[in-house]
Each structure stands twice: as structure tokens, then as C-alpha cells.
Please model this.
Amino acid sequence: MPELRIRPATPADADIIAAFNVALAAESEGRALDPTVVGRGVRRLLAEPTYGVYYVAERAGRVVGQLLITCEFSDWRNGIFWWIQSVFVAPEARQSGVYRALHEHVAAEARRRGDVCGLRLYVDRSNTRAQATYRRLGLTPTEYDVYETDWSATPAR
Model:
């Protein structure tokens, strides 16, 4: 099997990232996202790195996985949590170490920086397969639940 290469995404990766995000929402939450909106969001993030950074895994020159890092400052720790989001591995590349390679790359980068106090992510309660993967990589469940107000789901007035 060809070697994996992990790298920050570039604008040239926007289409595959957007397609992966649409597939992720359908697969993990049964949600049909508007590909146009997702594409604009991916391109915006790639153009404005203060929002976050995508990392992609390439095998034989083809993107086969991704994750997004966004930041949350913790005043309690005087450090930054890196939130892992938008995790997707192409179906044909699953169970071949793609997510592990992405995760280990991001964890090493976070430790190298010195101002990152930890990694966080959220996972659907019913996604036990992903939970098992995250546990194997050293992540542990927290005592927190996620609450939100999602204005994007409300039609503009």
C-alpha cells in the first residue's frame, strides 16, 4: 500500500473537502447539506486561516482523509484547545491507518507548538465505532455535553 502523506490543505483541495463534508453529514447524522453552502464555507476557511486549518491525508497523490482544527482559548489553563472536527476518511481507505496518521500528525504539531493544552472533539453518542477509535488514540470522554444555538438552521427574516 502506498505511503500516506499528511499536509495542511490548500485551496486546490476545496472541492474534495467539501464533498467529504457533505458525505460526512449524510453518513454520520443523516443530514443533507447544501453542497454550494459547504463549498463556500470550505473556501472561506481556507482563505482565512484564523478560522482553522484542514489537514488532509494523501495516498498516491489522492486525498483519502481529512480533519479540521479550530481553536478555543482556555483561561483556566492559559492555553489553547485544538478542536478536531470534520473528520472523514474515504470509504475505500478506512481501516488502513488514515485517521491514526492524521491524528498523530496533529497531536505532534500541537505538542511542538507549546501553547496547545489539549485536543478535543465531539462525537455522536450513537457512533460507537468512532468512539472506540478515539479511545485507542488516548482521548477520553468528558463530563460535558454540547449545547448550541444554530442560527444557520433558521431562515433569515
User: Anything to note?
Assistant: The chain has a mean pLDDT of 94. Residues 4-122 form a domain with the Aminopeptidase fold (CATH 3.40.630.30). The longest strand covers residues 62-74.
